[in-house]
Amino acid sequence: MVIKVFLASSSGSTAIKKKQQDVVGFLEALKVDYTPLDIACNEENRMWMRQNVPEEKKPTNGIPLPPQIFNEESYCGDYETFFDAKEDNSVYAFLGLPPPPGSKEVPMEERNGDAHREDEQAQAAEEEGEGGEDVAEGETADDEATEGETAGDEALAEEEEEAVEETDEQARAQEEEQEEADEDREEEELQSEEEEELRQLEEEEGLEETQEEEAE
Fold this sequence. Notes:
Elements: E1 3-7, H1 14-29, E2 34-38, H2 43-52, E3 68-71, E4 74-78, H3 79-87, H4 91-95, H5 108-131, H6 133-215
Parallel strand pairs: 1-2
Antiparallel strand pairs: 1-3, 3-4
């Protein structure tokens, strides 16, 4: 299997040049054998690349830009899909190649096996969830009973608070009445004292007049 990378050696786009360098540099770092095919100087390469890129992978204008990657006649992808595979540590799967010994990448067979095991685990979890519905219903009933008890306790507490508030209001009313009675009594006592002083003063004045008359 030969990896083909279609490039444009004389591209005026800095972005395209950078993408081509990223792909080539990473393949060389992985020691993956590949064949660079220039579409700038070879019309046949250009036409072959455009014809073999799937329609759904082509841009809106229908002209795919380099770099484009193939494994023999099979289309692998463009720079974006290559970059995604690199981020996911699945470049060999992207290229359709088995990972070499010691590679961190998991082979496609094992990936499929892991997916199958995940499906089995998910199914087992669903079955356990169905079996636990009865327990959940029992727990729900207990929770509802507990909530009912809590509501009853709250209602009782509210009644007690209202009774305490009413008692406090009555006590305050009694205190106010007592204060008013005390004020009235103080006023009466003050008035009595003033009247007593006035009476004494009048008596003293009458006594003085009597003494003056007798002196005359």
